[in-house]
What does this fold into?
Amino acid sequence: MASHTDSTDPNATPTPTPTTQAGREGLDALLSHPGTALIGLDFDGTLAPIVADPEQARAHPDAVPALAALAPKVAAVAVVTGRPASVAVRNGGFAGVPGLEHLVVLGHYGAERWDAGTGTVTAPAPPPGVAAARAELPGLLDRAGAGQGTWIEEKGGRAVAVHTRRAADPQAAFEALREPLTDLATRHGLVVEPGRMVLELRPPGMDKGVALLEYAREIGAGSVLYAGDDLGDLAAYSAVDKLRATGTPGLLVCSGSNEVTELRDRADVVTDGPSGVVRLLRTLAAKIP
It folds into this structure.
């Protein structure tokens, strides 16, 4: 991550140097008016390292302290994830942390919302198409010859995902399942969201961009930072672009990986995975009085 240092203070914390003018304007707005800034963050691959079993994913050990230092200085911090909100809260260790009293987790791409202030999750009823598609998945995986090493992740009845990372040839299994899973999703009124060795079936109209944009407008954000790592985060990037086009500065951050390059190509700042995101959060907290 490119950085520069305040020449007037040899001990100053390095700050990121965005590669685009829009990114530089976003960072400047965040630092000059932090009280109106929204910090939006993906969970898996951004706050938590990617692991073979998503159930074992946990936030980087320094993520919560960094968030707790930054959150009281900005308008809001929102974790935007495809996971159920309660799972992200548990795996992130976000509940009951001093400094995170106003944190929100927008789970299932915004279909669920957990507020730290109340400790409760609010959500509409699950869509019926997900359960119907889930019932057909075991047979589909067997017919596709992708059953060995692939596995199904339940997402609280609001989405279902098929992971191939533990298959003998993860990429081959991923490609073999694209078409049959797309056909299955279409029959049940769902869409397929590809990710890092995972294909997720969920209702249309749910994405991180919608969730981020609605929340930014709800709180009247004066600037927005969004950090993500996977294809599902591209919608959030587009939401930041929409905000920029209407006068709200934004900063796009990529939690870099070698598996997905699309975000890296669009980002203003690229960090070295979750550890780099944590360093960025700490830097911002140190720079804001």
Summary: The first strand starts at residue 3 and ends at 4. The chain is about 35% helix and 20% strand. The longest helix spans residues 170-187.
